[in-house]
Amino acid sequence: MRMLKNISKPIVLVAFALNLGACSDFLDLENANSLDVGTTVKDLPSLTNAANGVYSGFQSAGYYNRTFILLPDLMTDNAFVSRQNVGFYTNYDALEVNNQDGYAQGAWASMYGVIANANLAIASGERLNLNPAQQGTANQIIGEMYAARALAHFDLVRFFAKPYNATADASHLGVPVITEPQTEIISPSRNTVQQVYTQIIKDLEKAIQLMAPNGEKYRKNGRFTPDAAKALLSKAYLYMEDWAEAERYATEVISGGTYSLLPTNQYQNSWRFDFSTESIFEIENTNVDKAGVNGIGMMYEQGQYGDILTTADLYNTYSLTDVRRTLIQVGRRGVDNPAYIVHKYPKGLSTQDDNIKVLRLAEVYLIRAEARAEQGKSNLAQDDLYEVMRRADPTALKVLLTGEELVDRILLERRKELAFEGNRLFDLTRKKKDVTLIRATSSEVIPYNDDRLVLPIPIAEINANPNIEQNPGYL
Amino acid sequence: MPRFKLKLLFRLTLAVLTYSCLFLPLTLQAQTTGTVITGKVISAKEGTPLPGVVVRVEGSTAASGTDVNGNYNISVPDANATLVFTYIGYETLQVPAAGRTSINIQLKEDVNQLKEVVIQVPYGTQTKASFTGSAEAVGGEELESRPRASFQESLQGNVAGLQVSQGSGQPGAAVNINIRGLGSYSASNQPLFVVDGVPMTDVAATGYAWSSNTLAGINPNDIETVTVLKDASATSIYGSRGANGVILITTKRGSAGNTKIDFNVQQGVNTMTMFDKQKPLSTTEMTDLLVEGVFNRPDIVSSRNITSREDAIAFLRTQSSTYNPEVSTDWADYILRDGSFSQYNLSASGGTDKTTFFVSGGYYNQEAVVKGVDYERLNSRLNLTHRANDRLNINASLGANYQDMNTMYAQWWGQNPIRNLRLTVPWVSPYNADGTYNTGILYNNEILVNENKKNSKIYQLLGNLGAEFKIIEPLSVESKVGIDFNFGDEELYWDPLWSDAAAINGIAGNYATMVTNWNITNLLKFRKQFGDFGVEATLGQEAQKAVRKRVAAEASNFVDPSIEVLDGASVRNYVGSDLYETSLLSFFLNTSFNYKGKYYLNLTGRRDGSSRFGPNVQYGNFGSVGVAWNVEQEEFMRSFEFINALKLRSSFGTSGNQPGNWYAWMGFYGLGHNYFDQPGYGLGALENRNLSWEKNKPFDVGAEFSLFNYRISGSFDYYTRTTSDLLFGVPVSFTNGGPANVTKNIGSFRNSGIELTLKSQNLKPSEGGLSWETSFNFSTQKNEILKMSQERILSGFFVFEEGGEMYEYWMKGWAGVNPENGEGLWWTDETMTATTTDYNAALPFNQGSSLPDFFGGLTNTFGFKGLSLSFQFYYSFGNKIYDNYGHFTASDGAIGVSNIYGAMDRITYENRWQKPGDVTNTPKVVYGNSQTGVVNQHSSRFLYDGSYIRLRDITLAYELPLKRFVNRAQVYVRGNNLWTYVKDDLLPYDPEGYLGGLNNGQVPVSKQVTVGLNLSF
Predict the structure, then answer these.
(1) Partner-chain residue, chosen from A31, A37, A221, that has the shortest CB–CB distance to B683
(2) I need a labelling partner for A324 at 20 to 30 A (CA). Which of A292, B243, B295, B360 fits?
(3) Chain-centroid distance, C-alpha B618
(4) What pTM, to 2 d.p., does this model score?
(5) The last residue of a domain, from among B69, B88, B109
(6) Which fold has domain A44-464?
(7) From A100, which residue of chain B is nearest by alpha-carbon distance?
(8) Cβ B503–A85 below 8 Å, yes or no?
């Protein structure tokens, strides 16, 4: 009898179907789970949503939430895959990566996802007609998008190309630079590294110009600020070995006075908290929106996967009074005994929503120290280095080295301060230092210019894009 | 649990009985008065008793039927009544009783009626002689009482040109059916299923289940016939849904006469096939390999001063805290089992001249061979037909059913028991000494089976209501409204003991998925004979709309492990819903002309509009031309008396295919790209406004024949089917920012082949003698890519190139093992002239096809008195299958003892290279191997010949000579997949366990032995 009740629906359908005029209505169904790319961004709130989509791309486990933060430490002397493992990233530990590697593809796809969405947001944001009050906010968002695009290009070129200084004029293979919103299918070829960096600089300058000068509320929302763009700019110049510009932008961030290094006694615990006073740019994870079991914390914290351990080599660089030593616990993992266990992403054991700290003031000090040391400003460089050293270890003595030795000492401090934050590999290769690849039971010295220290262009890209060229050493 | 099932069964029985009681008074009245006439009905020719002959009293509703021995008894109102005996395939006989109380009857075969076999065709029925298309019917007897959840699985081997692949032993899983090869790459390759005139949709009502099948909700025992439509003439009328063939399912209906009650019960057991090749290695066996692996490492041997097995074991112990030669766990004992199987069905049918009915209820229960995987189904059905008056017929069907399945994860995840079976080392034990779970095993399968849950329930209502009205000769109208309503209720639960849920203290998810599929059909039919010319026409209009809505929620941090409802969790991880819709609007005309019943011409046309295409290309036109010539009716055939029927037919036409993705043409922002708990969107799909119909052009020429007084009959067909404007997810550069591919129409390919079907009655039973029937079918299949928009498309393990077949494997070529030193070798390139020991130095190339060259079935049935023996072989030859997880299981020592997921397989144990001169395909085991056995070393090493022959079905049945109480009682023993021949000795897994040529880590295929009882009253 229930059927009788429902019969009204088919009758409507019959009437619908018989009425030829209504045909198109019957067939024109909206996709209820999506929005139109061309028309959705029409005001400030919708532009904000588009920007959220861009930031969301950074959260991918293939990008900042795991792979991109992990590999630069794993492929060096900072970390290795425990003998008791579930198989994550073992090919990077062994440095036996081929073009079918899913991690490389995940990173490549996520990074270009960020760029494509940023391009769409920039293009649609710049089309909006807004009143002056709204225009200011829109400019902030558009500026953030330029910065996001720059960061993704910077990460791509660091992962998938040799360092800037690999050739004299950086004319070697970079990555495709994409700055236009997607309207038709493209198959771009690779730009030179020099062209990629030029675009990064240009985007960051544009970002600084567009964003609101006081970015505190944006910073605490996990968004770019002019200071974040400047810090990134100084880092990009550092990679380009434009020491003066690197120093200039680092100084702007430091002397702006917005940030301060955390006191020593707060340092260890600060890794549990978001947006501390020395954090310039973080990728936010919330309890609802996070990588969860695919996050970086699951890789380092024990009790879950915990496949990745750090090395005795790194542990022994810390003095007994160095607070950073407390982030490494000496324990046991299967036959790896002792095992050096990393606690820089401590929420891996609980809520699995550690924020990813992309740029910190401590790094900016070290960038400036390096830039100054390279320019022969040894005293100033020693000062900057000492800021970071004594915060970590109040008993530390000021380093009085100069020249090459000072640069090397700064590099060591980068290793100690920025361990497990995704820098080590790039710091070694850009400084033309051979890489000591430490594994569970062996180690190997890899020449700094070894092809295997650059990731392969994924096979799926090679197959789909006839114009792309593979990195040397890969098929 | 058993108690619960019994209760259900009881309720079901009660429901069926209640239904039947409603109708019993209509049928029993004849037996209340007058004289009783008894007798026996036999075949005039063979003298064998004819069971199931309908005996009626002319001019009254009284009716009866013969039992298994041909005996009947019927009450007649007066001694001079006339009895009417009707039996399909025999001439109807009218016999005046003339006062007799015992009348024995001989019925003659009706030669004309054999010709007049009526078959199900689109939007109606037709005589087989008048049908210009290629159609094959499978009767209910081939489907019922099989230990298979769905009728689709039983089509394997019974229909030429039809291939079934399930790739899984999960009961109730979706079944892939291909008719005449693959019709598409990215769009569906599945035929359209039409149940009692209602087209089904292609969308699943589940999300957590790896696979489910709403058609498995239909009880195979309720099916009268399944008709497989293969060529243009048969399928073009279904337009955009007809490209891959059409399968019409007709459920049973009652016929006037005594109420017939059928009851059957079946019980059995499932065990895994080909287990010997997969039996996990014991610790001793693993140690043999590892010790050998250590000795194959001169550097370790010298640095550690290893001289004996004991030394090597001592070394192994230093390399792993878990390695322990004293512990040996047989994971097969924990993970696999012999699953039980049972089904019960009860049905009643009958009726009067005005109203007939069929009601049924059924219960089906099957445990898979993997612990924790099982399936249960309950169904009921009511089919009614009512003749209101001479002009109006009303019919209605309602099937209500319920499927309940516990499934497992597929693919290579820790949640997949099959992965755990194949990879977990034997030296760890699932339990600690105190009986608690060993949580040192990251994915402890015992926790998975005992504590976690992955349950899917599907509730289905499948109904239709139709009416046929004769307006005025020769015009009539028919309307039908059908609904297919599915509700999927699913639950996923991970206990806090499970490693992935430990940190979050348990997590559970719920899916509620609603799939509704409405369909309306209106037909105007015309049928008239103009002298020698006959004309038939059907003008039709059809509208269909399907909607899928899902609500999903996930929460974690449970108050207690015994609580699984989300209210018991403190953290809401995810709440979401989505909604998908698709619609189709169609008009069609089917016309058929014949001259003297000898020559037939059939023309069809259809115009379909689909919501799945952009406004510019929303409509597509389809049509077909078919001709048939019934040669045996010609004068010149009179001299060939042995030819009873010979029909030549041919057809050509077009049909179409829609993309499986309902919004394939659209580019859009996808939702859920949120940040800091603020909403966001990101590029979800790239647009292609020009996306249009995939076109399918089938051509068929064939012959159907019956010879030697219908003792041999069969058909032969040659077909081609060309697919153009192929829908293809073309990979695009990631720099476009969206998903990795865009749906485009790119090129064309062709399937061609021959099909031969033969049925013969080798021995006819003279009274009580031996009978023997054979049916055989053979199909070839050739696929060729004709045109591509780019030179070569690589997709996963496959390559698509002009001139090649679809789904040819693309990977590095394994050149075997160097007999001198046991190292693995790969061909450097496709010339296969030089080998390399460096995997990275080898280039991939084409490794051959994943599609079989030919396949078919052979069934023999013997009968002797009440005993019958039937067995069916299925064979398939010429395809390759790839074990895409072979690179994990054939690790050749690469993993050493470091990882508890480092078990090596039995193939390695039995075939490895051990000493110079050994000729084998399996390299030496090397501890910490980096030459072979490394993850991602995909190559043709794991590519196997997939050819096999299988004893798919063997049944021994006996008709019990019971005369009282029952009309028929049969007991039987049935075995499935009891014997299999595989061509490739190294093939590790059942050849039917591969889906699309790849291993998906699914529930292994099983063999069954069942016993059953069928009773008819």
Answers:
(1) A37
(2) A292
(3) 31
(4) 0.80
(5) B109
(6) 1.25.40
(7) B936
(8) no
